[in-house]
Each structure stands twice: as C-alpha cells, then as structure tokens.
Amino acid sequence: MSHTEKVQALLAAIDVKRYGKTRNYVSGSVSELGPYVSRGVISTRIVWAYLLARGHSFEEMFGFVQQLAWRDFFQRVWMGLGDGINTDIRGDQQGVKHTAFPAAIAAGNAGIEGIDVGIQRLVSSGYMHNHQRMYTAFLSCNLAGAHWKLPAQWMYAHLLDGDWGSNALSWQWVAGTFSNKKYIANQENINRYTNTQQRGTYLDVEYEQLTEAPVPEVLKPTLDAQEVLPFDDCTSEALIAAVADKGLPIWDAISRSNDQSVVICNYYQLSAEFVASQSGSPILLLEPSVFAKYPIASHCVDFMLSLAMEIPNVQVFVGEFEELYSALRASGSVEIIYQEHPLNQYYQGTEIPRDWLAPEVEGEFSSFFSYWKKVEKSLRKEYKDVRGY
Ligand SMILES: Cc1cc2nc3c(=O)[nH]c(=O)nc-3n(C[C@H](O)[C@H](O)[C@H](O)COP(=O)(O)OP(=O)(O)OC[C@H]3O[C@@H](n4cnc5c(N)ncnc54)[C@H](O)[C@@H]3O)c2cc1C
After folding, report:
1. Is the residue at 307 inside a domain?
2. pTM score, two decimals?
3. pLDDT computed for residue 387 by the predictor
4. Do 246 and 123 reside in the same domain of the chain?
5. Are 13 and 31 in contact (CB under 8 A)?
6. Cα–Cα dist 334/348, whole Å
7. Residue 41 sits in which domain range?
8. Would 357 be classed as within a structural domain?
9. Which DSSP string corresponds to 193-255?
10. Same structural domain for residues 203 and 76?
11. Which domain CATH number covers 259?
C-alpha cells in the first residue's frame, strides 16, 4: 500500500464517536495519522474538511477536532517563541536533579509494564500512544528529576510523528514549565489506561505520596546526550547512504540548470500535493545542522525517504540551505518556493503560508483554551455555512 493509500485508509477509519470516549486508552480508537500530519503530508485543515464532508454533527467531531487544534496551538507557540521553546517557558522546572536521561527508561526497563511496553514499541517502530508519552515524561521529569530537554529529544528522535513543537511543549506541559502544575500518575491510573494489572510497584501509592517521592533506585543510573541520542543515524554521510539505498537521485546542478523554479521539501514538508500545487522542481533539502540539533533515528530517516519517493521527480540535496541557495544562483536565476515553518525562518525565496485549521486565528495566545475559543468559533461558522444550519 502506498503512503497516499494509507492516508486515505486512516482518514476513512476515523471513528469520531468512539474517539472521545476511548482516546485515553492504549487500545482506544485513535487515528494514527500523526506521522503524516507531522511530516506535512496532510494538514489539520484537510482532516477537518474530510470530516466535515462526511456529514458528522459538530458535537460528534468536537473531541477529535479539539485535538487537531492542540497541534496547531503548539505550532503557533513555536512560530512565536522560536528557539525560546527550548528553555523553560513559565519559570524554571522545579525539583531538577540532573540534565541526563534515566538509563532504565531508555531501555524500556523501568519496571512499569504499561510504560515499558510503550517504550519498546516506540524504539522498535516509532509509535507511542499519547498517554504512554505522558507517563514516560512524568517518570523522567517528575519522579527521576531529569530536566525535560534531553528526554524530550530522545522521544522525538524515535517518533515517526516527531514534531519538535508538539514534543517540547508537551514535555514542558508535563514538567510544569508550560502548565500550572506537574503531571503525575499512579499505578492504578496506568493499569486502567494500559490494560495492565501490576501491583506493588514504586508507583502503587496514593497521589499525595508521589508528589514528594524519592527517586526509585531503578531510575537512578543515567545516560548523557552522546549515549542516548542517535547522532550517527543522521550525519551527512549516513543521510547520503540512506538516500542512495532508496535509489533517490542526488540533486545535480548541471542537469537541472534549466529549472526556473524549485520547491523545497524537508523533514517537515513532504506533501506531494503541495509540490504539485506549485510550479517548480522538488528538492528534498536535508540540512545536517538541523539533524545535529534535533537528531532522528534511522527508522525516521527511512520513513522520511519513503515519503519523498512518492513525490514525482524529487531530487535530494544533503547540505545547508545557503549552499543550495548559492548553487541555484550559480546555475541561473531560480525562484525558490517553500512552506512557512518555524525551522525555515532563514530560507530565502517565496514563502507559502501553512494550511492552518483556522487560518484567520493568528497571533499569540496565553493558553490553549484562549486559542481554542477562537478556533471553535471560526469552525462553527464554517460548519454552519456549509450545512446551512
Ligand atoms: C510527552 C509528549 C510528547 C509528544 N510528542 C509529539 C510529537 O513529537 N509529535 C506530535 O505530533 N505529537 C506529539 N505529542 C502529542 C500526541 O501524543 C500525538 O500527536 C498523538 O499521540 C498522535 O497519535 P494519533 O495520530 O493517533 O493521534 P489522535 O489522537 O488520533 O489525534 C489526531 C491528530 O491530532 C493531533 N493531536 C492529538 N493529540 C495531540 C496532542 N496532545 N498534542 C498535539 N497534537 C495532538 C495530532 O496531529 C494527531 O495526529 C506528544 C504528547 C506528549 C504527551
């Protein structure tokens, strides 16, 4: 099945009614669209338009659409703060003991079955359920005392839907630096949502005991960034080898010297539809500096390249934007087209706005609910205009 067919199948399978009731359970009815949304293959707006056309009432879609809005909210915050999302947003994280990562969590061996299974699946396949992400962040930051940044980078590196905006801000939400309090969960809560029956663990206590709990022995040994992040999977050499392995062509200035315009794709923009909507030859730009700052594991590199293979005539450039820019200039006067994104702010050329869920709801918002209030109003109006009631 091609990725295009897979996206259509995932859209068709969305069960908005069951979603609201079951999304917190690992066996719940979630869409698994995340990898395609995060890689820019499908926008939150297209998902909304699809559901609207399917004839649901607004109330039926409410829970699902609100989650789509979380995604856009995090993107808006990232656009506004830029690299500011990499530091504690609303004051220093409380109770930090170190800036490393608990080795047992990295190994999926923290002694809590409902979390360990999620970590093992994450590392082997790139998927983790939202609730297991919250539990993992809670264990790392609020119990083991790690600062959120390195554990967040580790999770991002393995997620096929890795999106630094949603990731860093969700970790900050759990760690209490982008929320009013730290998130905690005990064994009873984890058992309920992960279908496990474990008892007698270090989490099998009342909530009040967890807020001041000592670091469990199993979470004490730590790993540093060099030991835990997959830097080697996304060096220039590794990227070039992975591109060759897929049989994707490397960009060649000489054979493309007649191109009048090019469309830049990257890790966050891999939509064949976007490329087709622009007139220009597609170039997948893989900047080593971006991957050195936000490393990704080999299964994510593989997923990215398999999406690129569905973009007709794409060529790959492994290097920095400035190098590509100079090479394009040298090969003739070329227009560069790219899509707006917080990681692109230094690109030069024609910037195309992103496909937001509610494009007119712009600006900075102090909280998700102040953002959602405006998005909901805008979507309800659109709903009424389409349905006529
Ligand atoms: C610690 C932590 C780290 C996270 N890291 C990422 C990340 O790197 N990339 C990422 O896309 N999401 C991240 N999330 C948010 C959320 O877990 C995923 O978007 C969701 O689990 C994806 O699975 P799904 O496609 O089945 O989602 P569904 O539940 O089916 O939701 C549909 C879509 O809505 C959006 N969405 C749903 N829930 C959220 C949420 N809580 N925040 C933002 N958007 C949401 C996603 O685009 C998702 O694909 C993180 C959450 C936590 C707690």
Report:
1. yes
2. 0.97
3. 86
4. no
5. yes
6. 12
7. 3-84+362-387
8. no
9. HHT----SSTT-S-HHHHHTPPPPGGG--EE-HHHHS-GGGGSHHHHHHHHHHHTPPBP-TTT
10. no
11. 3.40.50
The residue whose CB lies within 8 Å of the most ligand 1 atoms, and thus the one to mutate among 161, 178, 296, 368, is 161
- The confidence score (pLDDT) of residue 59 equals 95
Distance separating alpha carbons of residues 39 and 162, to the nearest angstrom: 8
The mean-pLDDT minimum among 157-166, 267-276, 380-389 falls in 380-389
The amino acid sitting at 104 is A
**Reading across the β-sheet that carries 281-286, which strands appear in turn?**
315-318, 281-286, 261-265, 335-339, 350-352
Tally of domains in the chain: 3
pLDDT at residue 364 above 90?
A: no
* Domain's final residue, options 205, 228, 251: 228
370: domain CATH number?
1.25.40.80
> What span, in angstroms and rounded, lies between the C-alpha atoms of 151 and 230?
13
| Residue ending a domain, choose from 228, 262, 286 | 228
- The CATH number that applies at residue 117 is 1.10.579.10
Place of tokens 């790219």: 338
At 269-305, the pLDDT tens digits run 999 999 999 989 999 999 999 999 999 999 999 999 9
> What is the distance in A from the centroid of ligand 1 to the CA of 148?
17
Q: Any residues with Cβ below 6 Å from ligand 1, and which?
A: 23, 30-34, 37-38, 67-68, 70-71, 74, 130, 133-134, 137, 155-156, 159, 161-163, 166-167, 170-171, 174
Query: Which residue's alpha carbon is at the smallest distance from atom 21 of ligand 1?
Result: 130
Query: What CA–CA distance (Å, rounded) separates 36 from 34?
Result: 5
Do 51 and 101 lie in one domain? The reply is no
Do 264 and 341 lie in a common domain? yes
Cα separation, 245 vs 298, whole angstroms? 12
Mean of the per-residue pLDDT values for the chain? Answer: 95
What does the pLDDT average to over 180-209?
96
Give the tens place of pLDDT for each residue, 114-142: 999 999 999 999 999 999 999 999 999 99
